[in-house]
Amino acid sequence: MKKTLFIIFLLSFNSFSQSNFKKFFKLSKPIKIWVLFHPFKAATALKISTETNRVTDSIAKTNLLDKDAVGGQVDAFRHAFWMAKLRQKIGKNAAKNLGKAHEKENKLQYKKRKLEDGVVPDKISSEMDLYNNNIGLSFTKKGEKTSIKRLIYKIVNAIKKGQLKIIKKDKKGRFLTCDGVVISTKNLHGKWKNDKCLVSSNNLSLNN
User: Fold this and answer.
1) At what angle do helices 2-12 and 42-60 cross, to 10 degrees?
2) What is the pLDDT of residues 102-128, one digit of tens each?
3) How far apart are CA 191 and CA 169, in angstroms?
4) How many helices (H) and strands (E) does the chain have?
5) What is the Cα–Cα distance from 52 to 84, expressed in whole angstroms?
6) Which residues have a Cβ under 8 Å from the Cβ of 138 and sit 6 or more positions away?
7) Integer Cα distance of 103 and 110 in angstroms
8) pLDDT of 52-103, one tens digit each?
9) How many CB atoms lie within 10 A of CB 70?
10) The whole model's pTM is what?
């Protein structure tokens, strides 16, 4: 069975360059497992992930959202857009499972103290991502031909209505508890669980 899966995987990567193929062996265990169970969808998922980063970087340079790519509206947008596009192309279950695999990867990164977007991942960030992933899945259906422009509009509108989640911060970008108390860097450093607080994505009274 494993041999068969690997052969299918090799065949599915015809559209990958040799360098991308080599990257597979550097992937985390959760992502490798996802690839092996979705061999014919791996190349598409990679293209969508690249497109998501490009679109999100462009959104971050505008005034549509808060420009915060680490726990802010831009971060929420990235996950919602990613899932919406993935569902369009590879289906809801495959997309959702890839999102879960990514968060498992983040837990491993935390244990190894690797940086994601300039910070070490933590539990509250993972909860935010999974929540926004699920909302993102609701914006499209497999095979649906929603344009990128239309999809951006839908997601930005949902964020401004508070339908997604962000992490509570003050005007200086410092993380806050749900009671509005600034969390010291010492109480965040190296901790998977901390006192960060998830709020609705339109809750920018303190973030701005």
Assistant:
1) 50
2) 888 888 777 677 666 666 678 999 999
3) 18
4) 8, 2
5) 10
6) none
7) 11
8) 999 999 999 999 999 999 999 999 999 999 999 999 999 999 999 999 998 8
9) 14
10) 0.84
Residues in the chain: 208
DSSP 20-51: HHHHHTTS-HHHHHHHHHSTTTHHHHHHHHHH
Q: For residues 183 and 186, what is the distance between their CA atoms, to the nearest angstrom?
A: 8
Torsion of CA 120, 114, 193, 197, to 10 degrees: 20
Given a contact cutoff of 8 angstroms between Cβ atoms, the answer to whether 129 and 96 are in contact is no
In the 8-state DSSP scheme, what is residue 116? Answer: B
Q: Enter the tokens of residue 179.
A: 């009671």
* Domain chopping of the chain, boundaries: 2-154
